[in-house]
Amino acid sequence: MKTTTALLLSGLSLTATAKDWPMWGSDPTRNMVGESKNLPTEINPGELDDETEAALLDSAKNIKWAAKLGSQAYGNTVIAGGKVYVGTNNESPRNETQKGDRGVLMAFDEKDGSFEWQLIIPKLGAGKVSDWEYVGLCSSPAIEGNRMWLVTNRGEVVCLDTEGMANGNDGPFKDEAKYMAVKDEVVKVTKEHADIIWIYDMREELGIFPHNVSSCSPVVVGNVLYTATSNGVDWSHTNIPAPNSPALVGLNKNTGKLLGEEASGVSTRVLHASWSSPAYGKIGGKDAIVWGGGDGYTYAFDPNPVKDDEGFDIFKELWRHDCNPAGYRKKNDKPIKYATYAGPSEVIGTTVISDGLVYAIIGQDPEHGDGVGQITCIGPDGKAKWTSKDTGRSISTVSVAGGLVYAAEYDGDIHCFDAKTGEQYWTHETQSRIWGSTLVADGKVWLGTEDGELHILKAGKELKSLATIEFPAPIYSSAVVANGVVYVATQTHLYAIGK
Description:
By secondary structure, the chain is mostly beta strands. Helices cover 5% and strands 35% of the residues. A hairpin with a 6-residue loop joins strand 34 and strand 35. The termini are far apart. The model is unreliable at 1-18 (pLDDT under 50).
């Protein structure tokens, strides 16, 4: 046990590189707040070439560069070490010898957007039930130094070299050609391919059953990687194929060895899938993993695993809080059916830690439509400090800055609450569906919509719209900021915005 604890705590750091955005949410607390200044609001993304779909920047304003992605992009952008990474699909293949539906992680040069390398991930072949067609890669990588970690559309945790194959084939894994091939395809590995260090297959090792997609973005603290497993229901939406498989695990970031898992029974109660990403920070003065479960509860775990009665290494549950009001789960003592307007929801957006408090918001798969929702502020004891039903269902992550909480809901509204009391100050209607999350940077709130609009609002207790920018394609991912540049990924292109 001493060895395991030392392994977990060695190299512990909760601060990310100040100017980069090296993981989803920037740092382990997952708070969507950036530090950049002098960000422009006068923006013109230009047009797209009708034949090639290339971004035409002749008429663009404050666009440093734009890079072509696939036809769908749900993975949020990450910036570290001079490179920009984003998940997409393979509908605009960079390698003409590897065509067809696949998940793709693309790496670009931060300065000019030139393409550097890609990880090409074959589909599971299970269809919509576990690896939805053309959705691509939904996970955002976590990066430290020359290593990065992500969850693939195949339910694998993968460690990669940030340089790709440009500096040779490092690590124990040497069969990248076979991994990236489909059927009898012969892949010639070049410097434009990814360099895989190790792979941990959660489907094989843990027996999980990902529902629709594997979407978690891992968090790395010290020598440990924490990730959800996306374990969920099958095609019937009533049967849980792997109720005894963990919904959250910890792996050794250097080797991929399993170090611990949750044993709270989340998978036995999962409503749809455990898609939310874990956060890590101080709760009541103690380090904790905080995570929103697919059962609609938010959990806090001790990050140091202990042996249970059966000899498994588990993360001890510190507390759990039901983010659904009782009236969402039952009416007249009878359970309310899931995926109905009035029924219970899971936590899909990432839990955020700020000033020792936890912020969580509930929601469902967008295919389920609108429904009742709630945002909850949870104290160190696991009890609600405040709640608000003024938000409907949400798949977004909140931003906490300047004593305020900014939260988006799927039906198109952006809300501003007092972070300590829950008092609502304003609501901004975008008139469009919202999949992404709010970003607070440079005194502004940034958020993209399904209509392809980037809304820029003034941060503060008074609502003021600064600009609404129209992009050529829908925006389903979240805007992020690094080194004085805002990155917006539409379904088809990645834009670097800066003066």
